[in-house]
Amino acid sequence: MVLILKRDYIFVWNIKTIIMRTILNSIGITTTIFMTSIFIPATVFGQQSKEGTVEIERSRILVEDVLSEEEQAALTPLDVFNSLAAGNERFVSSDLTARDHSMQIRESAEAQYPKAIVLSCVDSRVPVEDVFDKGIGDIFVARVAGNFVNDDILGSMEFATKIAGAKLILVLGHENCGAIHAAIDGAELGHITKMLVNIKPAVDISTKSSGPKSSKNRLLVHEVSENNVRINMEKIVKESLILRTMVEDGEIAIKGAVYDMDTGVVNFIK
Ligand SMILES: [Zn+2]
Measured in angstroms, how far is the CA atom of residue 67 from the centroid of ligand 1? Predict the structure, then answer.
């Protein structure tokens, strides 16, 4: 057994197959089909075997497929939305696409043509690319605690769409967000105090939930999370002439969603 550690992946070639390939190569027979199985960490697929790995066919690994300029240009905002929604369905059903990131890095080294920009919270439990089953070169991700818009984020969004051609902006909140909790409770500490000012408007307009005005009130936390997404979706078109014009011209769309950490489901806001 030969083990080659390569970033996230552990490639395992059966020694018998390597010998077979060598023999066949020596008599001029192509042996691509003899590439043996590749094992990748079981956590990627949510399955667990005795060795902590799952076995998948070599042909199922996405090796060099990185979005091209032509492919990006042919996409509509709706195509991109559907692609994200379908990717989340695969994530939820533990059917993530296996990718060889090392090869994808090399393929996308010269240029990038991502299809969307996602504004997410920094929360470590929200692995954005995985949540939408996307790989290298597929999406831009802007992250700030509480997923709110400011000048820097707007500049990043303008770059992602106007310059780099992305067709969709997604503001992605999540359940059980620490920044939302802190904003509700009026936490004060260092730069966090100033940062939470950005989330306060969502707290102020969240009056539908019964119960205490506290982060222990799950209904209130959910309401604030959704309102925070809505407020920032509106802020994007209100504060950026470039993005507003692109929306009006149908070049891009702006969507909002809240990620449910219990289920992995991204609930898009209507
Ligand atoms: Zn958060």
Answer: 29
Average pLDDT in the 114-118 region? Answer: 95
Tokens 């956590």 appear where? 43
Alpha-carbon gap, residue 15 to 22, rounded angstroms: 11
CB atoms within 10 A of CB 88: 21
Report the sign of the C-alpha dihedral through residues 101, 103, 109, 110, in that order.
Answer: negative
Do 139 and 24 reside in the same domain of the chain? no
Same domain, 40 and 170: no
Ligand 1 center–CA 266 separation, angstroms: 14
Question: Domain range spanning residue 221?
Answer: 69-268
Residue 119 and residue 190 in one domain: yes
Whole-number Å distance, alpha carbon 134 to ligand 1 midpoint, is 21
Instruction: Tell me the CA–centroid distance for residue 252 and ligand 1, in Å.
Output: 26
pLDDT of 208-224, one tens digit each? 999 999 999 999 999 99
Global confidence as pTM = 0.77
Please tell me whether residues 225 and 124 are part of one structural domain: yes
175 Cα: distance to centroid of ligand 1 (angstroms): 8
Number of domains comprising the chain: 2
- How far apart are the CA of 216 and the centre of ligand 1, in A? 15
